[in-house]
From TrEMBL:
Keywords: Membrane, Transferase, Transmembrane, Transmembrane helix. PROSITE patterns: GNAT. The chain crosses the membrane at residues 44-76. This is NAT8 acetyltransferase. InterPro entries: Acyl_CoA_acyltransferase, GNAT_dom, NAT_camello-type. It comes from the Eukaryota. It comes from Rhinopomastus cyanomelas. One of its GO terms (molecular function) is N-acetyltransferase activity. SUPFAM superfamilies: Acyl-CoA N-acyltransferases (Nat). Residues 67-217 form the N-acetyltransferase domain.
Length: 221
């Protein structure tokens, strides 16, 4: 049985924590791309593009080439969309993890350690959209260590932290492409309370964010 321990973040974890976050987000780009391609509107658009290009150039090979270029362009757009989120995060709270999560009593950041390596992370801060709730953030577990109970242990750490400080709930945000994460959170008792597209580009790419909530009994914050 794999062994690990959850402990508070230390400065020497900085590079490993950021690298784990980056890999965890970028791995969802292919899933987002496949989701976009499965859309009936996307498939209809590609068909119309093929027919129009073939009619204009009189060659089905060139029509296929036009569709291929469109697919490549779409992949680059999806990749840029995901990368922009990573860059934004690295420039905000993940730029200085200690300052963002360890300088106030109602914020914290933990890592999961296995074999002397950081294999998971999670953070907690007061939620911006609900003063009675705490926000679970930056949950990530390396691919090689999934299925070992690390994510559940990290969630449990946040729930205990929030309960000890009198918060009434824990909130989090995940996306429609993070299916495994949705199942994990729902299995731990979180319930979906909202779904929305964060931008026009997200709407076009069929990307949505889901808000989840876990109510803590006896919370008074």
């Amino acid at each position: 049985m794999a062994s690990f321990r959850i402990r508070p973040y230390r400065e020497e974890d900085y590079d490993a924590a950021r690298s784990l976050f980056i890999r965890g987000i970028l791995e969802h780009a292919p899933t987002e791309y496949r989701l976009f391609l499965r859309s009936a509107w996307t498939q209809l658009g590609l068909l119309v593009l093929f027919v129009g290009a073939r009619a204009a150039m009189g060659c089905w090979v060139l029509g296929l080439g036009t569709v291929a270029l469109a697919l490549v362009a779409t992949w680059l757009q999806v990749r840029a969309f995901v990368t922009s989120y990573v860059q934004q995060s690295l420039a905000t709270d993940m730029r200085d993890i200690s300052a963002s999560y360890l300088k106030t009593p109602d914020s914290c950041f933990w890592v999961a350690e296995s074999g002397g390596c950081v294999v998971g992370t999670v953070g907690a801060t007061p939620a911006q959209d609900s003063e009675a709730a705490m926000e679970l953030k930056r949950m990530s577990v390396s691919k090689e260590h999934r299925g070992q109970g690390i994510a559940k242990a990290l969630i449990g750490e946040v729930l205990r932290f929030a309960r000890a400080r009198g918060y009434g709930a824990v909130m989090l945000t995940t996306s429609n492409v993070q299916v495994a994460a949705q199942k994990l959170y729902e299995g731990q008792g979180f319930r979906k309370v909202a779904a929305y597209a964060p931008s026009l580009l997200a709407t076009l790419l069929r990307f949505k964010l889901f808000r989840y909530r876990y109510d803590l009994p006896g919370g008074t914050a």
